[in-house]
Structure formats: structure tokens, C-alpha cells
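Problem 12. The chain below contains 158 residues. Write out its predicted structure in C-alpha cell notation.
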Amino acid sequence: MNIESIKEKLHGSSIYHSEENILGHKSVIGYEKKFKWSWLATQLNTFIVVTDFGDKEIDEDLIERHLTESFKFSKQNYTGWPRGLQSGLGVISILISTNVSDKAKDYCVKLKSGKKWAGFSIPVVHNPKTKETFQFENNPVWGRIYYPHFKKLINNLK
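Solution.
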């Protein structure tokens, strides 16, 4: 998983994407809008924000700052129905680095990022050197209907 392969996979999945700069690093941002009856007739707007940090250490603080900036970018560029009125916003924040702390791995696996009003922040870290990806293992209660879709989006980028 790297920026170029992610751009190709987003394009191959017909997911709109652009290149941006998040926290001073090259990033690619994908955007998908879906409506499903199985989601209790809601529209889900998902932003996939991927940033390559090279060999910079990924720790909990960097994940939280990336989540904050990614959610801020997503809210500014969101054009769907008003959040909360049969519409939700999901932000998948993927940080790539060859230097990932154990606490960062745990943060992603245990999905410590919390929830937002009619929104979800999903942290993911990937180490291209070891080819390991750390993401949530269990679907939380809040927003449970969307998490299989988030997992599928993440796994399709690997």
C-alpha cells in the first residue's frame, strides 16, 4: 500500500480522488457517496484520506492530529444532505510509515478515535516495510451498520 497504488485502486473502484497536502505531507483523498436501504435508508459520505509520512514515527498524537485535519477537510468539502438527517459522514484516515509505534497500532485496532455528530473517524496505519496494516477488529455499537463497508473499503486498498 502506497500513495500511487491507492490512487490506482480508487480509480479502479470508480471512487473520485484528488491530491492534497495534509499536515505538510503528500496525501490522496478519495470520496464516495452511497445510499443503501440496509443502512436504514441513509446516505453515507465517505472520505478516505491517505498520507505518506515516509519514516516519521506514527504515534497516537500524530494519528489524532491527522484525524482532526482529515475530518475538518471532509466537513469543508462535504456536499450531501445535512448530517444527521438520514445522512452520515465517514472519514477513514490512513497513515503510511515505516516507523509505527506499538501504541499507534493499538489505537487503530481498538478504534480509540471516538465518534462525531453523525460522523465516524476510522484510524488506520500501514507499514510498507513489513506490509502490516492495523485497523479496527470489532465493529462498535455506534454506527455498526456502516463498519462492514468501511472494512471493505480499507481492505480493497491493500
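Discussion. The two ends are 5 Å apart (CA to CA). Students who got a different answer should revisit the alignment rule from Section 12.3.
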